[in-house]
Protein: Phosphoadenosine phosphosulfate reductase
Amino acid sequence: MALTQDEIQNLNRQFKGIPPEEIISWAIKHGKKSVVTTNFRPYEVAILHAVTEVNKDIPVIWCDTGYNTPQTYKHAEELIARLGLNIKLYVPKQTTAHRDAVMGIPQIDDPRHELFTEQVKLEPFRRAMDEHKPDVWFTNLRKGQTALRDSLDVLSMSKDGVLKVSPFYHWSDVQLDAYLKEHGLPNEHKYFDPTKVLANRECGLHT
Structure:
């Protein structure tokens, strides 16, 4: 979707306080091909529910690092079945067992950490986006998560020219808890991202 920065800023002013479903409907209507990405981390169910309420057939790209907790995998299977998600699964080209044997999970200051992140997250994500070629990308980015995300908004443009749409950008955990309760949706907090040492660190997808 071709939008100038001025147009994005104007739309962001309009979208502040607008219900997520209205933002989602606008983006799907004006875009050519939409996808939603997920890693089934805490509160991801909100964006998955909201988007599929508008378009139940939207591709849901799941880049599984292979290091999720058992709780996350069970949560994912529950949501896939319950919401009827059109899951498009992408995994690293190397098995977790292979990588554990030759590399393990490098610490952030280990020179191999960059290669590790490339293998388990960045390459599968690029492969997914190359195959689907969306112009609209729904995410559950929210203000207050990281310094970078604080500089974004409901609408932002990715470095590859894809319009990122984050309908819950201005929502707090308390508001999301209320949304989940209203719709009877489960949440899961036992989540592990092997590419991050700190919770407020970017993994590379949004930089």
